[in-house]
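Reopening this ticket.

The earlier resolution said the output was attached, but the attachment link was broken on my side. Pasting everything inline this time so it's all in one place.
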Amino acid sequence: MSIDFEELDYQETPLGGISLRRRADPRLGGEIVYEVRLGEEFLMSSRFTVSETQLAKLGLAALDGAGWDVVVGGLGLGYTAAAVLESASVKSLTVIEMLRPVIEWHRKGLVPLGRLLASDQRCSLVQADFFQWAASGLGKSDAKGPTHRVHAVLLDIDHSPSHWLTASNGAFYSGEGLRSLAGKLHSSGVFAMWSDDPPENRFIRLLDAVFASCEAHVVSFPNPYSGGDSASTVYVARMPSETAVTLPA
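Inline output:
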């Protein structure tokens, strides 16, 4: 029996109603596509996952050694988290997701990668506000996330550094917000972030002021709806290699 359209779940959240939908797309030969909407805003689709996967691959490629503790901000449909777990060098993965329904979709197996993430013992799905965790100090018992330094933080929540899901997220994209996040990373640790917009020079300057190095990777992928290519940006910033890291004031 073919699936034309099915709403798998709808729940109210502090950010508005969120829905998980599954449909057969006739423009793609009946391919089954999973989509997430928050209110009337389109958030993500299983049809476009190249940049989410590249967020993990580019971020981890900047690390040295092995035995990495990784934090992913934003669970979505799980493609970034799944790509992280492909690496045998990853010791632990904590995914911080604010919206409880999104975590439930994975635990119940309503999305394609849910069972994979739930069955990997390295992976923990934590309901919390990533931005509150990023702004909190290490070792605080009320911070819902790792209370120790980690090797990589990969962020995929807002549409871009200047287009946020909610205005309260904006404080993160400042020198103070990024310095707080940097304080959670080991020396030579990596912060990587997905954006749906082209590279922003203002944000690159902020990253350069906080981290030892920064690159903005343009990730292109075919778009069957437009008949051409679409592109996203993955920012990759790395901490200094010194054991004692002094963050800029």
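Reporter confirms the inline version is readable. The CA atoms of residues 172 and 178 lie 6 Å apart. The two ends are 61 Å apart (CA to CA).
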